Amino acid sequence: MVTQCGMSSELGNVDLAENYESLSNTTKQLIESEVRRLIEEGRIRATDLLQAKRKELDLLAKALLKYETLNKEEAFKVVKGEKLENKVVMPKGAIKIPVSTTGLPGATLPEIPGSSAANGGGKPGPEGGLTA
């Protein structure tokens, strides 16, 4: 993105990929710093979005564990907090819930950094979701 598409205000709209080997070390370091900046900005944006939409993500995760599949309309209803009418519930045990990295049954999975549970805002529920 930086070297071929010019997606850097610092480096401009120049194709730097074609003659990358002949670029100065200063220019290569600038390219690396711009790539790191773009990646970090994307990570921060994604983390902020996931944290802002945590309630909706939890509703969606619980619905997927309950029903296994959702179409677009059903997913929108779930995210809005609406009930799904006439949707077949998956039988208990049909979906394998991941175990912790210890491999011990009943052990809890590590919390997602920055989530409300990691900050003491909830406790793991019976199906890996959060409860109040």
Describe the structure.
A two-stranded antiparallel ribbon has the order 1-2. It is mainly alpha-helical and 132 residues long. It has helices spanning 25-52, 54-67, 72-80; strands spanning 123-124, 130-131. Helix content is 39%, strand content 3%. The chain contains 3 helices and 2 strands. The longest helix has 28 residues, at 25-52. 3% of the residues are buried.
- Computed CA radius of gyration, to the nearest angstrom: 22 Å
Largest sheet: 2 strands, antiparallel
End-to-end Cα distance: 43 Å
State mean pLDDT (0 to 100 scale). Answer: 79
Estimated helix fraction: 25-40%
- DSSP summary: helix tally: 3
Q: Which runs of at least 5 residues are low in confidence (pLDDT < 50)?
A: 122-132
List SSEs in N-to-C order. HHHEE
Order of strands in the sheet with most strands: 1-2
Global structural class: mainly alpha
User: Beta-strand percentage?
Assistant: under 5%
**Inertia-based shape:** elongated
Number of strands: 2
Topology:
Layout: H1 25-52, H2 54-67, H3 72-80, E1 123-124, E2 130-131
Antiparallel strand pairs: 1-2
Helix pairs in contact: 2-3
Could you name the key traits of this structure?
two-stranded antiparallel ribbon; 2 strands; disordered C terminus; mainly alpha; 3% strand; single chain; elongated; 132 residues
